Structures are given as C-alpha cells and as structure tokens.
Amino acid sequence: MILHTNGLEYDDRIRKEMLTVTRLFPYIQFKIFAIIDGNQSQNEQGVTEYGIEYEVPLLTTRLKYKQGTHLLEKAWDFYKTIKPKLNDFDAIWCADFDIFFFILCEKKNIIWDMHELPTVFMGNILKRKFLIYLIKQCKVVIHANPERIQYLVNQKIIKDTSKHYVIHNYPDFDDVSTYTDSTFENFLKWKGEDKCVYIQGANNYGRCDKECIDAIMEIKNLKAVVVGNFRKELKDSYFNKFGEDFFNRIYFTGMVSQKLTPRYIRCCQASLVFYRNIGPNNYYCEPNRMFQSIMNDCPVVVGCNPPMKNLVEKYKFGISLKSDGTNTSEIIDALHTVLDNYQLYCSNISKNKSVIEWRLQEQEFRSIMNQI
Q1: For 91-145, what is each residue's pLDDT tens digit?
Q2: What is the pLDDT of residue 177?
Q3: How does strand 250-254 pair with strand 91-95?
Q4: pLDDT in tens, 244-299
Q5: Radius of gyration of the chain (CA)
Q6: What's the pTM?
Q7: Would you say 82 and 58 are in contact if contact means Cβ atoms under 8 Å apart?
Q8: Across the beta sheet with 53-56, what order do the strands follow?
Q9: How many other CB atoms sit within 10 Å of the CB of residue 310?
Q10: Partners of 302 in the beta sheet?
Q11: Three-state SS annotation for the chain
C-alpha cells in the first residue's frame, strides 16, 4: 500500500482495510509505504499497531522544501525512492491521488483507492483526459460511496463501472477496549453530569466549525467536546468574547487515538457533523464522523449532503438540516429537538445501526482481491 497520511495511528480507513484484507487473505504479504505530514529527519520503519509492516522513507525534497510546497517534486521523489523496493510485490494499493506516479508508471496490478474525488485532475480537458487514462491503468478503482461514482459518470470520467467498487467508511470498533489517557480522564471531570455534544474534526471552515460553536454557546446548560484540531485564531476570538466561560463550555482534546474516539462519543447526547458545500468532495462526503456517532448510540445532526441526509432520514438516526450546516439557527433548533427526544432517537439507532457495520462489506473485499 502506498499512501500519504497525517499519521498511520490516525488513519482509521487504512486500519480497517488492512485488517479486513489480511484476515480474509492471510497468505498475502502486505507492506505500507507512506508519506506522513510533518517534519521528518530520518527513515522510519516498523510495524503498525494492527500488525502491518510499514516504511516512511526520508525524502531529500522534504528536507529541501517547506511543508505544503513543491508537491509535484515531492511526489516524484517518493516514487523514485520506493520503486526499487516494489520488486517483491505483485500489486500496488494506491490510497488517494497524491501518489499518481505509481499509477502512471508502474506495470503491476493497481488498485486505486479514491479516498477523495480527484478534482485536481478535473479542471480542464487535458487534465480530464489524463484522469481517464489513469483510471484505465487500474485493475480496480475503489470509491467511498455510490454518489461519488455517479458524479464521475455524470462528468463523463467513467463510462464502464464494472471495475469500480464502493467501500463505505463504516465504523469497526470491535477492537476498542477500556483504553484511556489523562486527557480523557480530565474530560470526564470537566463534563460531570452535564449534557454534552460531540464535535469531531471541526478544524476548518469546511466543517462549519464556527457555526457549531455559535450554536452551542447559544444553548444554556449545554457543553461540547471538540475532538481533533481547531483553528487557533477562532479559539482566541471566542475566548476574547466569552472569557473563561468559553472553556467551561467547550473542551478541546487535540488529536486523539482512534481507540479513544468511541469513549468520547458515548459520553455525549448528540453529535454535529457538517461538510460545507464548497466542492464535490464535501457535498458527496463519506461521513466517518457520522457513522462513528451512530454506531456508538449518539443521535446526529447533519447537513443536507445526500450521503448523510438519505441515511439519517431513512432510519431516523437524528435530524438532517435544510442547509449544509451554515445556518446556526437551524443547528440550535435541531439540537433542542434531539435533546428533547433523545430516547426516541436512541431507540431508532439501536434497532437500525447494524446497517452500517464495516463487516457487511467483506464480500466487496473478496471481489476486489479476486480481480487482481
């Protein structure tokens, strides 16, 4: 597997995919080659906590250029560095589009796992033709949901869908234990017996971070926990406005291990999940945060994005707004409704959450691997 990630311990989709494939095909040898965001001063090798050997090569371009710059040069450097190490492998599983040189140049069986729609290749006719060519090079292409396949069909990028598969980012918490840390213990003391809302990954404008906090601060006797990073300038502006009361109402965890996210969710009475409609990847989101919340018995408030709206309205897992999360008044009204009818939504989740279990996709994995 070739990928670019924030960190192997935080990349839940990769963990789930590798655990499933190695369990279904135990005779296959896997290795992960990764670029990990951040400063890196040496080659790193080891075994992930889920048992897959990995290597993070030291790239001269990463030492030479600042993070987030000269991405094409870094991608080519990554390919040249890894290429000699691929001789022992029969297939390459490419996660996302940052590593397109492997798809373009390698003659092995290629699985392209499109975690995101490759909109960077859809800006003009030449780019679109290049994207179509890349797809033709692949034995299998994996998409996060059927809405994204249909979008590429509508854009005339895909004509024949026979080698295109959907792997939803459903949760799999079978391996979660009573793992804890000091941040979680401090959160429990801070929360006490108060009602709390779960907000994960609201670290940018696209996740409606401001609208989420504005809504919480408007509802008396309600707290919220923000799991993951959060914009410092936005946090500072709230502290200037509310003083210490802001931190009495909002708890910030920073980055959290995947093992711990279910424990935070289970302490909350509602979860806010929004993807502002700023592009097709957001509009046709594959909402891991929503799936995690539902699987852990937490009612959700989501935007009008089709993949979330369709599921939430079908099974009454919570409330889908008319907007994409940019209307604070809608969020406030929805939170009041969910909190006032908490037991009803919990009952709906209990009866229907089995429809989003990760294990339901095992046959898709068998089909994908049998293709190569």
Answers
A1: 999 997 778 999 999 989 999 999 899 999 998 999 999 999 999 999 999 999 9
A2: 58
A3: unpaired
A4: 999 999 999 998 887 788 999 999 999 999 999 999 999 999 998 999 999 999 99
A5: 21
A6: 0.88
A7: no
A8: 44-47, 53-56, 31-36, 2-5, 91-95, 109-114, 140-143, 164-166
A9: 12
A10: 273, 320
A11: CEEEECCCCCCHHHHHHHHHHHHHCCCCCCEEEEEECCCCCCCEEEECCCCCEEEECCCHHHHHCCCCCCHHHHHHHHHHHHHHHHCCCCEEEEECCCCHHHHHHCCCEEEEEECCCCHHHCCCHHHHHHHHHHHHHCCEEEECCHHHHHHHHHCCCCCCCCCEEECCCCCCCCCCCCCCCHHHHHHHHHHCCCEEEEEECCCCHHHCHHHHHHHHHHCCCEEEEEEECCCHHHHHHHHHHHCHHHHHHEEEEECCCCCCHHHHHCCCCEEEECCCCCCHHHHCCCCHHHHHHHHCCCCEEECCCHHHHHHHHHHCCEEECCCCCCCHHHHHHHHHHHHHCHHHHHHHHHHHHHHHCHHHHHHHHHHHHHHC
Structure tokens at 221: 């006797």
Please give the structure tokens belonging to residue 140: 């299998």
